[in-house]
């Protein structure tokens, strides 16, 4: 107690004494009795204490957007905080690798698959999935069926990422109800992460239980572990050569290639690759589902924005049946603005991303320079940066024009983080968003915005802004309790 309050290297930093003393302070706001509210409380702490705040016995949080590049810069030798990464239960994954050098080695083996050039070679595969979705929408048009858009987008993104990682897609878009169980397993499992931060022994115990016991436990816990087990089965099939789907594909698959890479043998084991697969699949489908759901809501609830987007798409794509290269779509300013505004307000990952610098950092706040000692976990939060009114005036407003008016704002878009630990799949995510949005909204409008060539329209069903905006931070944005999130009907 005395050490944490008075002798710790960060004892002089501002913040509540109770937060410096114990993790129970964070637990109170993030787990019980409150639920995922610590991010909002940290925002309030910054208003009280200033731009740098001690948020638990070991870590600092910084709110100044201009400091993001310093903390997450590619040139810095930084580790991740193991107290944070252990919560995923996947220490072998690149995402959860704490050590800087080992992370660099593991990331280097996968980086070629996520380069811009590699991703653009995937366009035929992504486009085929967009066409599959369009076929389903056409079949559902006028039926009165209510679609849960997070489930629909999740089916699309899962089909894409599974085909790229393992060479096999479950074709969830063809499942009559778009396979909501897949969406729920990922979404509900992700919501458990903040609890597991404070109850890691419980999670480790649960991981070791047989599947028949897991099915009798709470749904969120059971689905989180079952998802990892399903990834293990996929990896074993690849390693035993029972999955040879990659031989018939025009593009390489990640895990078939990793097994033939120059990674050390210990990085090619079943458990390590299972953990790698789990994080790639999770990142590749859940965050994309969140962002595209958020964008779709704002397009359907804002006729002015939707009309501008459809006018740009109609001009750039005169014939919607002709495939438009993703590189062409990426040069459309308003479509790009819509995507960036969706990333800004949808966050993707909203949780605190800790870095542990191995050298002193200097943080300037007014007339005061704070020297952050080496080895101190420091974090920033996209959900707070994206609402900094000095950077994004009227930050709660969905306004794609802001990105066209001021290209300098790109510096402050941190949905994918930055530096050598930024999201590996950023290029794939952008490609999926460009192709999905262009493919869907070139052909469909809303009751208020209909073009002559449209195949139909989307109608919001019992949905308002509270069904898509973040109510709690559970590492991913979580909507209000009992919300059914975005629901639509396809109308004539």
Automatic annotation (TrEMBL):
Required cofactor(s): heme
PROSITE patterns with a match to the protein in the record: CYTOCHROME_P450
Metal-binding among keywords: yes
InterPro entries referenced in this protein's UniProt entry, alphabetically: Cyt_P450 (IPR001128), Cyt_P450_CS (IPR017972), Cyt_P450_E_grp-I (IPR002401), Cyt_P450_sf (IPR036396), Cytochrome_P450_monoxygenase (IPR050121)
Residue numbers binding heme: 423
Keywords noted in UniProt: Heme, Iron, Metal-binding, Monooxygenase, Oxidoreductase
Pfam families: p450
Matching CDD domains: CYP58-like (cd11062)
Gene3D superfamilies for this protein: Cytochrome P450
One Gene Ontology MF term: heme binding
SUPFAM superfamilies: Cytochrome P450
Highest taxon above the source species: Eukaryota
Family: Belongs to the cytochrome P450 family.
Protein name: Cytochrome P450
């Amino acid at each position: 107690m005395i050490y944490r309050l008075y002798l710790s290297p960060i004892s002089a930093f501002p913040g509540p004494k109770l937060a410096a003393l114990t993790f129970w302070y964070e637990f109170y706001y993030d787990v019980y009795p409150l639920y995922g509210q610590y991010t909002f409380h940290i925002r309030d702490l910054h208003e009280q204490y200033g731009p740098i705040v001690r948020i638990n016995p070991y870590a600092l949080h910084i709110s100044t957007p201009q400091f993001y590049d310093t903390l997450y810069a590619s040139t810095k030798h930084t580790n991740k905080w193991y107290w944070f990464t252990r919560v995923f239960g996947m220490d072998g994954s690149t995402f959860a690798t704490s050590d800087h050098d080992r992370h660099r080695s593991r990331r280097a083996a996968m980086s070629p698959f996520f380069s811009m050039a590699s991703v653009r070679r995937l366009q035929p595969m992504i486009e085929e999935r967009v066409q599959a979705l369009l076929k389903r929408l056409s079949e559902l048009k006028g039926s009165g069926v209510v679609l849960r858009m997070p489930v629909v987008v999740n089916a699309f993104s899962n089909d894409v990422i599974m085909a790229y990682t393992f060479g096999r897609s479950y074709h969830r878009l063809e499942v009559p109800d778009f396979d909501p169980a897949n969406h729920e397993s990922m979404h509900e499992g992700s919501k458990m992460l903040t609890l597991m931060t404070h109850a890691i022994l419980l999670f480790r115990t649960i991981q070791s239980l047989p599947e028949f016991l897991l099915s009798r436990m709470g749904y969120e816990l059971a689905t989180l572990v079952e998802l990892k087990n399903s990834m293990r089965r996929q990896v074993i099939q690849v390693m035993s050569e029972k999955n040879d789907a990659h031989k018939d594909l025009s593009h390489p698959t990640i895990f078939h290639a990793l097994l033939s890479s120059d990674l050390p043998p210990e990085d090619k084991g079943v458990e390590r690759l299972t953990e790698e697969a789990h994080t790639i699949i999770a990142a590749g489908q859940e965050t994309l589902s969140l962002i595209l759901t958020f964008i779709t809501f704002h397009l359907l609830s804002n006729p002015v924005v939707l009309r501008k987007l459809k006018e740009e798409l109609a001009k750039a794509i005169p014939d919607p049946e002709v495939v438009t290269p993703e590189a062409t779509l990426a040069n459309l300013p308003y479509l790009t603005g819509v995507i960036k505004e969706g990333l800004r307000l949808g966050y993707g990952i909203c949780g605190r991303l800790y870095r542990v610098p191995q050298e002193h950092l200097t943080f300037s706040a007014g007339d005061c320079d704070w020297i952050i000692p080496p080895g101190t976990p420091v974090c920033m939060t996209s959900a707070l940066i994206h609402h900094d009114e000095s950077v994004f005036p009227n930050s709660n407003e969905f306004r794609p024009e802001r990105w066209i008016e001021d290209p300098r704002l790109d510096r402050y878009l941190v949905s994918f983080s930055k530096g050598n630990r930024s999201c590996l799949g950023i290029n794939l995510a952008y490609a999926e968003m460009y192709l999905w949005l262009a493919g869907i909204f070139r052909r469909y409008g809303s009751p208020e915005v209909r073009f002559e060539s449209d195949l139909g329209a989307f109608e919001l069903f019992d949905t308002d802004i509270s069904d898509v905006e973040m109510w709690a931070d559970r590492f991913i944005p979580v909507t209000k309790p009992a919300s059914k999130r975005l629901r639509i009907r396809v109308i004539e």
